[in-house]
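Hey, resending since the last one bounced:
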Amino acid sequence: MVKVIPLSVHIGAQIDEVDISRPLAPQEVQDIRAALLEWKVVFFRDQDLDHQKQIDFARNFGELTAGHVVFGGDDQYPEIYSVAKFRNANKNPTTPILRPWSGWHTDITAAINPPAASILRGDIVPPYGGDTQWTNLAAAYNALSPALQRFLEGLKGRHSFASKYDEFVDSNRLVSNHPLIRVHPETGERVLYISPAFLKSIVGLAPQENLKIQEMLWEHAVRPEFTVRFKWEPGSVAFWDNRSTAHLAPRDIFDVDFERQFYRVTLVGDIPVGVDGQPSESIEGDQIGAVSR
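The structure tokens again:
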């Protein structure tokens, strides 16, 4: 049986006494899945993974997408996405205004079926800095007042993946309307589904209402008590539920010369469903499918 060690009250647990580089027993898979659903993100230390072993581990939990729906994957291992320090997704010629929620995101929510989960391994890890943070969006929903919960449950948000400065990204535009409150397909929890990087507007609200309500919800969702911060080491692996979390990639690594090279695989997700039972709506872009080998 694996050992699960919670790291904070609402989110995050370390899993010990399991070697995920080898084939797992059915009970180990069941225990890891249960820990993931309860703690939203789970961490492993001192794992000896390469691309193929990372893929093999992930396949215990579902089908895999291409490394990135827009930027693609590795030539030999199409499921692998290189999370390098200066990867394309980090290249922005402008200097954005930084607010408490800046950079927080749930992966690819602009797609009609955003990824179910992601698994990230540290390969080249800086000696310090480069921590990643996650927040529990189910806990964020539960902390809202009942009146605000009811109001949000009837609304959809428009999520978009596009760029004004990258022609390639803009030519592969993804746009979807998702419920602001989605029901988790496995736990039944209600989740505040408001990825700051992709949510562009709340459907049906006036511009001023949009601005104020989105900023209020984003600030609420990243409150420190809902979050966990993970210090990476060589051989560390993070496995998070993309349906109930948002995460923040580090910015401090750009202030030092340390290299940072990680690799991610992503599990195919379902189409979100709201409290009213209505599914999300695709505006632009195709559904994310599994990699065929």
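The chain has six helices and 17 strands.

Sorry for the duplicate.
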